[in-house]
Write a structure and sequence with these properties.
single chain; 0% strand
Length: 115
């Protein structure tokens, strides 16, 4: 039923290709980032600033493997999702500000994967 309705509206013709789909500007497209309202920028940059002194939680293989023994994923997942939320906020803050001030904290996050 849904497939038939989608066929009628020719959804494939209305969607952008993967290459053309840009949900947000890249970092170097400064004019697009600067066009965002000052209130929105101030809010998100302020949120990012709250995490500049943040200590990233350590995600151990032991915590990850605990799921196979106990079925409890929360020890690992809580830290994982906390990290994901914070790095998203840092990335958005840096993109909106565009001064490179927040990049060090983002680099710390990336470094966690090389340890």
């Amino acid at each position: 039923m849904l497939i038939e309705q989608l066929d009628k509206i020719n959804l494939k013709d209305k969607l952008k290709s993967r290459e053309d789909f840009k949900p947000f500007p890249n970092y170097m497209e400064r004019m697009s980032w600067e066009a965002i309202s000052e209130d929105v920028k101030k809010y998100h940059i302020g949120k990012a600033e709250q995490y500049l002194g943040y200590v990233w939680p350590l995600l151990t293989a032991t915590a990850y493997m605990e799921f196979s023994k106990s079925g409890n994923r929360s020890r690992y997942d809580n830290g994982y999702f906390e990290r994901a939320h914070i790095v998203k906020q840092l990335l958005l803050g840096e993109c909106l500000e565009g001064e490179g001030r927040i990049i060090r904290k983002i680099m710390e996050f990336v470094e966690l994967f090389s340890l």
